Amino acid sequence: MIATPDLRWTAAWEDLVSAALVGTDGRPVPGGRPPGRADTADTADTVGGAPVAPPVELLEQAAVQVIRARAGQRPHRGRPLPPAPPETRPLVGRAAAARLERILAGEQGRLLPEWLEIAAERGARLPARLIPRLLDLGARDQSIRSHLGVLAGARGRWLAGLNPAWSYLRDEPTGGAGSAEVWEFGTSGDRRAHLAALRARDPEAARELLAAGWDKETPEDRAAFTRILADGLAMGDEPFLEAALDDRRREVRQAAADLLTRLPESRLGTRMAERAGRLLTRDGDRLRATPPRACDSRMERDGVRARPPAGSGQRGWWLQQVIAHTPLSFWPEHLGLSPAGITAMEVGDWAREVRMGWTRAAILQGDAVWARALVDVEPLTDLLAILPPDEQSRIAAEFVRRHPVDGQMIMMLGGIPRPWGTPLAKAVLDKIAGVATAQPWNAGELARLAGERFDAAAHGQVARLSDLPEVHEVTTTLRFRHELARELLDDTPGLPDDTRAEGPGGAPEKRRTDDGHGAAGETGGPLGEEDK
Q1: Per-residue DSSP letters for 208-265?
Q2: From CA 387, how far away is CA 393, in angstroms rounded?
Q3: Which of 168, 313, 346, 447 could disulfide-pair with 473, CB 3.0 to 4.6 Å?
């Protein structure tokens, strides 16, 4: 039997934790026998007559500490929890809820974000039994939190108040109608949604509302609110953003600098152009880059971060940031070339930093001309996202046709949102057929992406194209998504406490049969008339 440890050997909990982290081979058990000391018959803990090993002794002492702590607690009078507020949103239908349970059980698990997105757009709420599982997922995956803010309903927020791991939900928008009371007393998420809606309607009024209480906002909210000003950005916002460069919080200064970069006539744009003009010049048929030798306080105020990320040199990091915050309209006049001509020139030792700076500037400023020039050098998804959908699909399709399936292709395709355009869909299907025999692992990953990103209404057309298992997998996923959207968009009530979803004017909303992101055509189809 295991003898009860001598309480003289027990030590403070912190000492036991330290010994466990270091290991009993390197540190003696606190309060226990020193390493190497022979145990005596009257003091040694034994198991079947053998001395107890130090790790076991440490665990026994930890167990004693836990029991002591629990036994020493005084009971408190319990108080009943207040009930959850009543729900105001309709519950999802039975079929949609059953499909969500299948997804959570592992069937087509990668489609969970799409289910949540469509359901949140519909303004529905989750069955109570599924809320805890989804709140656990949201604690690990921030990308689904905004949808859960709507779908979890009043009961989800009630639960979030009981579990610290779920407290993030209280900062997510609920999807309710905005009002002055929401701005004054709402959660951070609802206040962001209110400011964004006002900014879309009346940009000046939104900026004035933000400026009126700016000093009372938390640093996190100031940074989030500043980024909302990107919608409807104009020179009228420049004085407010210029003042925000003096904020104590780095994230606020960075957000303000990113927005001012989109205003070529801003004071920051002028200062950055002056710096960039000295750092990057034309030398015949090549460009000469001279990175800054120091990052002074004025550069830091303008959004240049002094400390580089791991693996980057300081001077190159400063050069990249200055170029990233320089108005792109400055370069053609300064260098005497078009964007395509500039990006094609040789730079030398600092080529990577210069091109990364231009790439970041094109993304910040949403410049399609520079995006086209840069995407020819490196097809980054963030650059493709700047272009119109048809052009994005065409360029991505050309890349798929020209290049082998590798990590770069998978990463690029993974960043292109659904639904993919016809040229890209055809190119990916052709690539799947081309590599299915020699590279089944690559064909499988392409099939998974295709199933998630094609127009779901194309499932019948894709099924008729090929008998390959990978194409069958695409068809299966598309059909699953098609049924998923149909169930969520159906206006049939779910459980007895549902309210019937209505369209404009109170009439029942017309049932849709597409994937929720665009109607399927009456004739032809997502892959074109010739593929029917």
Answers
A1: HHHHHTGGGS-HHHHHHHHHHTTTT--GGGHHHHHHHTT-SSHHHHHHHHHHHHT-TT
A2: 9
A3: 447
**Digit-coded pLDDT (tens) for 459-498:** 999 998 888 999 999 999 999 999 999 999 875 444 434 4
Query: What span, in angstroms and rounded, lies between the C-alpha atoms of 268 and 261?
Result: 7
Which residue is it, tokens 């006002």?
A: 198
| Helices 422-435 and 469-489, axial angle in degrees (round to 10) | 140
Residue 86 tokens read as: 């009543």
Tell me the C-alpha distance between 444 and 474, whole Å: 9
Please give the Cα distance from 299 to 277 (Å, whole number).
Answer: 15
Straight-line distance from the first to the last Cα atom of the chain, in angstroms, rounded to the nearest whole number: 77
* Mean predicted confidence (pLDDT) in 324-352: 93
Q: Is the separation of the CB atoms in 392 and 362 below 8 Å?
A: no
Model pLDDT, residue 530: 36
Asked if 502 and 509 count as a contact pair (C-beta separation under 8 A), the reply is yes
| Residue 111: strand pairing partners | none
Please state the rounded mean pLDDT for residues 297-315.
Answer: 91
Nearest residue to 332 via CA among 279, 273, 290? 273
Task: Give the per-residue pLDDT at 240.
Answer: 97
Determine the Cα–Cα distance for residues 494 and 480; give it in Å rounded to an integer.
Answer: 20
CA dihedral sign, ordered 458, 459, 465, 469: positive
For the segment 13-45, what is each residue's pLDDT rounded down to a tens digit?
Answer: 778 888 888 787 777 777 665 544 444 444 445
Strand partners, 50: 47
User: Locate tokens 């048809």: which residue?
Assistant: 390
Q: For the chain, how are helix, strand and coil distributed in percent, rounded to 5?
A: 60, 5, 40
- Mean pLDDT, the chain, rounded, equals 85
User: What angle, 0 to 180 degrees and rounded to 10, lies between the N-to-C axes of helices 54-71 and 13-22?
Assistant: 150
Q: What is the pTM of this model?
A: 0.74
Please state whether beta strands 50-51 and 280-283 pair in parallel, antiparallel, or not at all (unpaired).
Answer: unpaired
Tell me what pLDDT residue 493 has: 41
Distance CA 84, CA 257 (A): 43
User: What would the two tokens of residue 100 be?
Assistant: 């969500």
Residue ranges per structural domain of the chain: 7-70, 111-171, 264-387, 389-531
Q: Is the bond preceding 239 in cis, omega lying within 30 degrees of 0?
A: no
Tens digits of residue pLDDT in 155-171: 999 999 999 999 999 88
pLDDT for the residue 50 = 56
